Structure formats: structure tokens, C-alpha cells
Amino acid sequence: MTQDELKKAAALAALDYVPDGAVIGVGTGSTVNHFIDGLAGIKSRIAGAVSSSEASSARMRAYGIPLVELTEVDSLPVYVDGADEIDGGFAMIKGGGGALTREKIVAAVSERFVCICDASKKVATLGRFPLPVEVIPMAVRHVARELAALGGTPKLREGFVTDNGNLILDVHGLAIDDPQAFESAINQIVGVVTNGLFARRGADVLLLAAPGGVQRHE
Ligand code: 5RP
């Protein structure tokens, strides 16, 4: 199976976690795109979706899936999203697609985070995938110096502006032994909007697609 076929298998398995009549949270990325395609087939079963990006909103709008603003709901029963890396404690690096801030906000109000991945995303230690950090533009040089002081090598994502009008620094060369502590440390840097470590609020369910099938870890 190709990596994309594995992503699709994980994504379609997540349809089992969509409660009838609910407003659900929907993430961003190529794996989530398969989930949205599947969700279109059961759209009459749900009340709507809160989207984590303009890209996912456009895809859901095209299918006629009702979009709901997060300001209209207090909580969501489930949030379905992919990851760039996930460890054994279900801490993740996210933001490869640059949607980390809205993803983290939607995840924060969700009771259950269902992470959908192909098996290549499972790692022992987070950090081989460069950690995305969303930054207020005027702070980019300051934040880059502070990230370097924490041991990483930040590189500006060239030509990229987030849905929130900000920049992304991708931090290379990390081996993150304590994801919760590192997530908190980066959040202390003035000018950082969000970092792509989802450790303090990690996943609750991991649907990991391997050639032998989709493993469900809860
Ligand atoms: C986007 C994300 C994605 O979930 C992550 O990058 C995984 O993407 P893909 O499903 O395309 O491999 O965090 O900001």
C-alpha cells in the first residue's frame, strides 16, 4: 500500500468515532482530506463541523457539510486530525500544513482527540520532524534567537503566511525528551503565537494505519 492509501485507511476508520447529530471538529492536511471525503457520505448524520483551516473549510463547503463557528459552541465531542509525529504517550508534533494554531484551539475544546496517521508517523522521540512555531511577524528574529537558545535550529518557512497572518519558524535538530515541558518553554517566548507540540493536550485515540490494517490505540 502507498502512504496515501494508508492515510485513507486511517481516515475512514475515524468515521466510526463520529457521533450521530453532533457538531464535530475537523483538522487539516492530506490525511484529514480523506476523512472529509468520507464525512461527505454521512453528512446527513451530523449537525455540522468546526474547521481548523481555510483549506478544510473550502473542502467541506464544496461537499455541503454545514460549517459551524467555534464561537457558537462550548464543546465538541470529537476532533479528528492528523499529525506529523506521534509518540508512545500520544504527544504529537503538528503544523506541517501550518494550521497549528486553529488546530490547537479546536482540540482544546474537544472531549476526544482522534489522531489519524499512517505508521510512519509513530516515533519513540519527537523532533526529527522540524517543529513548527507560529510567530507574530515583527518578533520573528527575536523568537528565532530564543529557539536557538533552547537548542534548535529555526528556519523561516519561506513564502508562507498562516491563516492568521503570521509566519512559521520550523525548528530543526531537536530530540524532545519532555514534550510537555518543552511545549510550555516555547510558549513563554514573547512573540510566539503557538507551537506545534500537542503534548499538554495530546491525542486520546490513535488510529494507525499499517499494511496489515488499522490499529486502534485508546
Ligand atoms: C497541519 C497538520 C497536519 O495534521 C499534519 O501536518 C499531517 O499532515 P498530513 O496528513 O498531510 O500528513 O498538523 O497543520
Detailed description of the structure:
Catalyzes the reversible conversion of ribose-5-phosphate to ribulose 5-phosphate. Keywords: Isomerase. Its EC number is 5.3.1.6. The active site is at residue 103. With 218 residues, the protein is an alpha/beta fold. It has 6 helices and 13 strands. It has helices at residues 3-13, 30-40, 54-63, 100-108, 140-149, 179-187, and strands at residues 23-26, 48-51, 79-81, 85-86, 92-93, 113-118, 131-135, 153-156, 167-172, 192-195, 197-198, 205-210, 213-217. A 6-stranded mixed β-sheet has the order 2-1-3-6-12-13, with helices on both faces. Strand 12 and strand 13 (213-217) form a beta hairpin. The longest helix has 11 residues, at 3-13. The radius of gyration is 17 Å and the shape is globular. The model has no long low-confidence stretch (mean pLDDT 97). Bound molecules: ribulose-5-phosphate. Residues 27-31, 81-84, 94-100, 103 line the site of ribulose-5-phosphate.
Features:
globular; 13 strands; 6-stranded mixed β-sheet; binds ribulose-5-phosphate; 4-stranded antiparallel β-sheet; 218 residues
Distance between the termini: 24 Å
Structural class: alpha/beta
Q: Give the fraction of residues assigned to helices.
A: 25-40%
What is the tally of beta strands? 13
Largest β sheet strand count, sense and barrel closure: 6 strands, mixed
What does the overall shape look like?
globular
Q: What is the arithmetic mean of pLDDT?
A: 97
Topology as H/E string? HEHEHEEEHEEHEEHEEEE
- Count up the helices: 6
CA gyration radius, whole angstroms: 17 Å
The residue ranges in which pLDDT falls below 50 over 5 or more consecutive positions are: none
| Small molecules in complex | ribulose-5-phosphate
How are strands sequenced across the largest beta sheet?
2-1-3-6-12-13
What percent of residues are in strands?
15-25%
Catalytic activity: aldehydo-D-ribose 5-phosphate = D-ribulose 5-phosphate
Keywords: Isomerase
Function: Catalyzes the reversible conversion of ribose-5-phosphate to ribulose 5-phosphate.
EC number: 5.3.1.6
